[in-house]
Each structure stands twice: as structure tokens, then as C-alpha cells.
Amino acid sequence: MNAVELATVSKSFGGEKVLDGLSLVIEQGERLVILGPSGCGKTTVLRLIAGFVPPDSGSICLEGTLASRDGRILLSPERRHIGMVFQDLALWPHFSVMGNIEFGLKATGVPKAERRRRIAEVLALTGLQEYARRKPGELSGGQQQRVALARALALQPRVLLMDEPLSSLDEELNQRLRTEIVRLQEQLGFTLVHVTHNQEEARDIASRIVAMQGGRISD
Amino acid sequence: MAKRLTLALAVLFFVITGALPVLSMLFRSIYIDGHFGLESYRGLMSSSHQWLLMRNSLALSSLVTLLTVAAGVPLGILLGKTDLPYRRLLTLLFVIPLLIPAYIIAVSWSGLLGHWETAGRWLFGLPGCVLVLFSVFLPVPMLLTMVFLRTINPELEQAGRLVSNWRGVLRGITLPLILPGIGLAALLVFVLSFGEFGVPNFLRFAVYPVESFTQFAAFYNFRAATAAALPLAAVTLILLWLEASWLRDKTWRVRPVAGAGRAPLIELGSHRLWLFVVVVCGALVFAVIPIVVLLFQSTGAYAEAFSRAGASLLRSLAYSAFGASLLVVLGFLIGYLVYTQPNRYGRAVDSLTFFLFALPGTVIGIGLISLWNTPWTNLVYATPLIILFGYLAKYTALTSRITVSQLAQISPSMEQAAEIAGAGWFRRMLFIVAPLAWRGLLAGWLVAYIFTLRDTGITMLVYPPGHETLPVRIFTLMANGTPQLIAALCVIMIVATLLPAGLLWSLLIRKNPGVGR
């Protein structure tokens, strides 16, 4: 069964067509990188998969379940079992690192003991144990990036969406985190959909690369 | 040099118009018959009447604050973040009571409920004051909630939506993030209701501003009036301390984030209809019905209203327009200083503006009289200048804070580029900063116009003979005018407020479609 399937999806914002009949199949466990210039519709693809916006036409299936179709969201974001790392990370400034990770676990009804175990696990995976009680504003860019990753991974998502999360980091840190992302994906086995405009980053992370141009997958 | 001198002169002018009157009042209350003494205050602590006034004042402000925040925050979320139908129209309806003098709403409710004995009895007292001030100040938490919602990066909520429904996201993410805005709203409502004079005076509820006014205007007992003003100043200082320590850094540079206006709305689904009905009923009860009652009551009384208060109307419009213009200039200079000098000096000036805004108008009025009522200062005391000084003292905080928010949205490099090009400070302000901040200046003018036009606390005390404004005229006519005449004057007052406000608001929206979305 495919992890994600977009079938002839179109989307416009304020009369401007951002996606134009896009079709894309993403298989279980693959690391797909969508590569394309700014404004080509990469982020919109992620937002459609996450269920933040409905497609104007076309359909989106997640593991065989119809999630959105023709202007309607049939499966709300919290029921899609998707994790996402946003471009500006979107860390909640009023929570500590632990609070950021715990919010989703609490909201999805994970019991306290299990929450503790999972928090400890992802903190260890991302090397953040000593920063658990700090607020995001007290961390460096690279540490914040790891918190965003830990927050997404704690929920054991089937699909992890990454929206250019490395673009604001310096080259050295960027390269180190690419390696970590691949290591974590291989260790945990989730499906990764990563968007970027950086070809080198795409090559380092991807098991498959698709290029986007003008709202379509280009050949 | 030009910059330093201009800003220093602006601060000096503000200190003379605002701080000096209050200091003069305090001095005269402790310097009696050639010696210093605390006689004026001795009776204050021992009198049970004073404690009753304090209890009443605190009960009224606390209840109004509690109720407006409890209702205003959910209302702000509904109108600012959901797919509720006719959100913009409903927002405008809820804002109307804030724009007009509060006692007009009290007049309207008394006209409506006065026919029923029990309801009439209930209206005159604490419940009636709470009802009227609730409807008047409900827009404060509502609007601040809407404004602060636009400062949240939509991705913070979307990150929450991946794991929780909207209810969980609002509780866990959104509300904690807008908490400073809610705190500011609570503080403002408390300050405004604590200093409110017109409504408790009309509905005969004994609170400090009424006592202070009565002692001064009815008995001309300056010492008793000042003594009654002292607790007001003390509570105001506590509020200022709260604002400065907890809220100022989090609220004074409100910056909407890019994309917040385009963030997807919460779909109410099956709750949409009943929530819409509840909100419409609220708008009808608190905004539409009071105005409709006045319209019905005032039929046929407009000719008499214009003949008896036409001059007051023109004066009100002129003083408010002129006062608002002065407030924009002074607020811009002080806001620029506060923004560019975030040191102890800048914070002290900002604190002073907020203290005077929070101080009840009656206290400022008594202070102005205390300072300017001398044979050598008739140029101020016996002319409309004293009214304008009162406006500047009380309302500069509004225009300076709006300026600070607006300056925070302009890149400092804009002014720096002009400086490198050789432009002096005046030229930079006039041709670079002011044009870039024009929306804030216009919004500041509008807010200042509304607040000065609805002012009664200061104007009622300081207006020189022959210079009474329309709100004062309505107040004085209440003693011997017919209900029809009073209602007609109230309707004229509402139109005088809403017409320019509507015109300027539509201009702001046309030039910036993001406003009011």
C-alpha cells in the first residue's frame, strides 16, 4: 500500500494557480525529496498532505484512506498520523523542549508513563537530554532544529513532512543534520517527504528525487 | 541637536500639561494655610464612607473586568478566527458602544427599563453600572484578542493541529500565546471602569470619581475632592506597576505576522448556526437596542436639540478635531522617543503617559484647576486651552503607543538611508518616517478624536463658561430637559462620533485591505 497518493490535484490561492493537476505516489518507507525553486508549489504539496488546506480538485489518499477530495477535507490533520517539521520550525515559545514534545502526546491520549518513556527516547535520539527544560528561545539554531524533529518523531508518525527546515542553518550544521535525518529515518522506518531548493541537500537525503516547476512535477 | 531639542521640548510640554497639575494638586492638599500637614487625609482613613467608596469602586471595576474578559475573549476568537458569517459587520456593531460616551448607553437603558419598576430599581445601582459598562468595554478584550491573534505565526497552530483538534490547540497553544494581550485588555477595562464618572453618576452608584467630582463641583471643597482623588491615584500606581513589570515588553510592539490574515479559519461546522444566533443576539442587546431606543425616544425633538445644543456640538467637533491633531503630533514625538530610547529615560516617559491615561479624568481635571486657576494664568484657565491641556494629559498614551507599534513595523534602515543621504532629523521625520507611518498616525488621530469627543471626566470640571462641549451640555440638560430632548442629543452625539470614525475607517480599510479582516 502506498503511503501517500496525490491524484490530479489542483490548488489556487487568490486566483493564482499554485498546483495544476499534480499526481504523485509516495511509497512506504521511502525518502522522497521534492526539489524546486521558490514559489513552485512545494510547500503547498506538504500542506495538502497534512490537511491544512483542501485541494480545489483531485484527491489525496493516505495509506489507502481517502483524506481529501475536491475542496473537502475528509480526514482532519490530527487524525492523519503525520509529523511535520516547518520551515521556521514553529516551536511553541511558551513551552520548554519537553513541553513541546509532550503536548502532542498528551493531546493524543498517550498515558503518562508511556509519555515519559517516549520523551526520553526522542531526547536521546536527537541528543537533547541536557536541554529538556530549556525554552526554545534559549537554544541555538541547530538545537531548535533537533527539537522540531524530536517533537515530530515522538508521535511515531507514519509520514514525516519536512518543509525546508535546514535552509536557515549554516553549511556545516546543514550537512551534519542531513546525515542525522537519514540515520533517524533508517532507524525508525517512517516515510519521509522533504522539500528543498538545494540540489546537494536533496542528493544527500533522498532515496528518490522529484523536481517541481510551475505547480507540476517536471520530467 | 534638532532631534534632542525637539524631543526634550515635547517631554517638557507633556510634563507641564500632565504631570505638573497632578503634582500641584498633591502639593496644595498637604500645604495648608502656610504649613505642611496631612489634615486633608486624616479623615480619609477613619471615615467609613471612604471604605464604602473604595469597596464600590473595586467591586464595579472587578466585575466589569471579569465579565468583559470572560465574554470578550471567546467573542474575539469567534469574530477573528472562525468562519462565523458576517464577522466584519458584527465586529462593527459590537464596537459602537465603545465609541460613544458611556452614559449615553445608561440613558438608553434607563429609557428602556425605566417603565418597569423592578427593572428600573435594579438598573440604578451596581447591577445597572455593571450592565452598561460591560456593553461599553466588551469591545476592548474582543478587539485586543483579534489583534493579538494576528500576531501568532499560523504555523504554531498548524503544528498543534497535527496532533489535536481546534479546541485543544486554542487551549494549549493559542490562548497562552495571546495571554499578554488578554492581560492588557483586563488592565485597560479595569482602568477605564475604575475612572468612569458618567455612568455611576447617572445611575447613582457611589464610587470615587463621583465623590471627587461632587466634592469639587457641588461643594467646592478642594481638600475633600483631593483626598477622594488620592486613593484613585494610589490604585492607578499599582496598575502602572503591574503593567510595567508584566505586560509592557510583551505588548507595546504588537506586530502582525505575515500570512496571519490568510491563515485558514476554524470551521465551526454544526456549531456555526447556534453560535451565530448567540453572537447576533449579543450584538442586538448590547449595541443595536440601546441606539434604537434612543431613536424612538427622540422623534420630533431634533429641532429643539439643535437650537439648545447646536453651538456645543460645533465646539465639541472643533475641540476634538484640534485636540486629536495635537495628540497625534505630541504622541508621535513621545512615541518616537520611547521607541528609539528604550532606556530608563524612555521608560519613565512612557510610564508617565500611561499613569496619566489610567488616572481618572476627574483627578486630572482637579489638578488642572489647581495649577492654572491663578490671576496670571487666565490665558489657559479661562479659555479652551485648559480643555486641550486636559486632553493632552490624559490621552497622549494612546497616540504614543500607536506610534511605537507603527515604528516597530518600519525598518530602521529607512531612516538610516536618509541620514546617510544627508537629510536632517526634521526632513527625515517629515519625508521618510511620517509617510511610512501614516496609517498609524491616521489610526491614532481617529482613536484620539473618539476619546476626546466622548470625554466627560475632565471636560465637566474644567470647561470655562461659554465653552461647554456636547457631552457636558447633555449632562447638564439631564436635570431639566425632557427625555425626548436628551435622547435626541444623544443620537446627535452618536452621529458626530460615528460619521468621521466611519469615513476614516473606510479610508484605512481601502488603503490597507488587511485592516479589519
What's the short story on this structure?
With 219 residues, chain A is α/β, with parallel strands linked by helices. Chain A contains six helices and eleven strands. Chain A starts with a strand and ends with a strand.
Q: Please state the CA-atom Rg of chain A, rounded to the nearest Å.
A: 17 Å
The CATH C-level class name of the largest domain in chain B: Mainly Alpha
Task: Report the β-strand fraction of chain B as a percent range.
Answer: under 5%
Helix content of chain A: 25-40%
Largest sheet of chain A: 6 strands, mixed
Kindly describe this structure.
- The complex is a heterodimer of chains A (219) and B (517).
- By secondary structure, chain A is of the alpha/beta class.
- Helices cover 34% and strands 29% of the residues of chain A.
- Chain A has helices at residues 42-50, 97-107, 112-126, 141-154, 171-188, 199-205; strands at 4-13, 16-26, 31-35, 57-62, 65-69, 72-73, 82-85, 159-163, 191-196, 208-213, 216-218.
- The longest helix of chain A has 18 residues, at 171-188.
- Chain B has a two-stranded antiparallel ribbon.
- The model of chain B is unreliable at 513-517 (pLDDT under 50).
- Chain B is mainly alpha-helical and 517 residues long.
- The chains are: A alpha/beta (219), B mainly alpha (517).
- The A-B interface holds A 13, 50-53, 76-78, 80, 82-84, 86-88, 90, 92-94, 103-104, 107-108, 151, 155 and B 153, 155-156, 158-165, 168, 172-173, 176-177, 262, 264.
Which properties best describe this structure?
heterodimer, A: 219 residues, 6-stranded mixed beta sheet, 5-stranded antiparallel beta sheet, 6 helices, 11 strands, 29% strand, B: 517 residues, mainly alpha, MetI-like fold, 2 domains, two-stranded antiparallel ribbon, 26 helices, 2 strands, globular
Secondary structure layout plus pairing:
The complex is a heterodimer of chains A (219) and B (517).
Chain A: E1 4-13, E2 16-26, E3 31-35, H1 42-50, E4 57-62, E5 65-69, E6 72-73, E7 82-85, H2 97-107, H3 112-126, H4 141-154, E8 159-163, H5 171-188, E9 191-196, H6 199-205, E10 208-213, E11 216-218
Parallel strand pairs in A: 3-9, 3-10, 7-8, 8-9
Antiparallel strand pairs in A: 1-2, 1-4, 4-5, 5-6, 10-11
Chain B: H1 2-30, E1 31-32, E2 35-36, H2 39-46, H3 48-81, H4 87-99, H5 102-113, H6 117-123, H7 126-137, H8 139-149, H9 154-161, H10 166-177, H11 179-194, H12 198-202, H13 208-217, H14 222-251, H15 272-297, H16 302-340, H17 344-358, H18 361-372, H19 378-381, H20 385-407, H21 412-420, H22 425-436, H23 438-453, H24 459-462, H25 470-477, H26 483-511
Antiparallel strand pairs in B: 1-2
